[in-house]
Amino acid sequence: MVTVTIKDIARDLNLSTSTVSRALRDSYEINPETKRLVTEYAERLNYRPNPIALSLKENRSRVIGVIVPQIANNFFSQVINGIEAAAHDRGYHVIIFQSHESYEQEMITLQQAVARKVDGLLISLSSSTSDVSQIKELQQRKLPIVLFDRVVNDLDILCVTADNFGGAFAATEHLIQTGRRRIAHLAIPPHISITQERLAGYRAALEKYEIPYDENLIRYASFGQNEVEPIIDELLSYNPDAFFAASDRLSTSCLAALKSRNIAIPEQVSLIGFTNLPVADLLAPPMSTVEQPALEIGQMAAEQLINLIEGKQKDIQPGTNRIPTTMVIRASSQPAGK
């Protein structure tokens, strides 16, 4: 396939290359008839801008880097879909990196992204990340960065998350309103922002209904395959009548552990998760969950980052944008007999 260039179009139309270039950029300096002539001819020849030439001219790569803990996680794959859609609409390409829940790998991917001259970074921190000094250093070097989902409070930075507090409050309130009083909370590592927000929502719902907060009913787990089984045994010794898991990866493990112990759901204990996996309604029983707006988080995060890159909004202030969650009620948290 022959690559058509601006020089080819200029020669064929007997125009200067600068006139063709300005016409393709819809410059006010070029009269409408010339613009029409150039754009129609460019379309007929299937002209495509050279991204390398554009990046050299604009001093931008028109590429954004995205660092996620795990692409195989359905939530993050949906976020990436949102990021790619928004980036494509604004003329940017996306490079995806995985940290695999490792701080060390996250640092390596940060260095790789910077080495590839990305215009900005979208980052969801790994579950083992507590040191954000390298992100601070990149900020000081004026690299645009937006955090999403898993964020930190000690950075002056734009963040986009779900309303984790509101979602956890709604889940806990639902369990209370269906008659549950001893609600165990299975959380992910305690230093992660979403863990703290969901725990705060859980506690606020208990307080609203004057139910004492019991530390014995709280457990933290990472994402190891065999971690949940012993935790469930510990929690069962405190006679819970419901389980609220802070992620659907934990709630599905919790479901399997309870069923293997012949504990009837929801007759003996209710169960609710957080994320809304695609298979949640296919489980036995179908899983109640808090649905996170993954696509919207990705779209908003990408839009915010590109606005920073392009300086479109000079008054952008650091802070967190929280997108509402939705409760999805299924059989696992219905009152017994319903």
Q: What does this protein structure show overall?
A:
The structure is a single chain. This protein is an alpha/beta fold and 338 residues long. 42% of the residues lie in helices and 16% in strands. It has helices at residues 6-13, 17-24, 32-44, 51-58, 74-89, 103-115, 133-140, 164-177, 193-208, 228-236, 248-260, 294-310; strands at residues 63-68, 93-98, 120-123, 145-148, 158-162, 183-187, 218-220, 242-245, 270-275, 288-291, 319-323, 326-328. The strands form two sheets. The chain has a six-stranded parallel β-sheet with strand order 2-1-3-4-5-11, sandwiched between helices. It has a six-stranded mixed β-sheet with strand order 7-6-8-9-10-12, with helices on both faces. Helix 5 (74-89) links the parallel strand 1 and strand 2. Helix 5 (74-89) packs parallel to helix 12. The chain is elongated, with a radius of gyration of 25 Å. The relative contact order is 0.12.
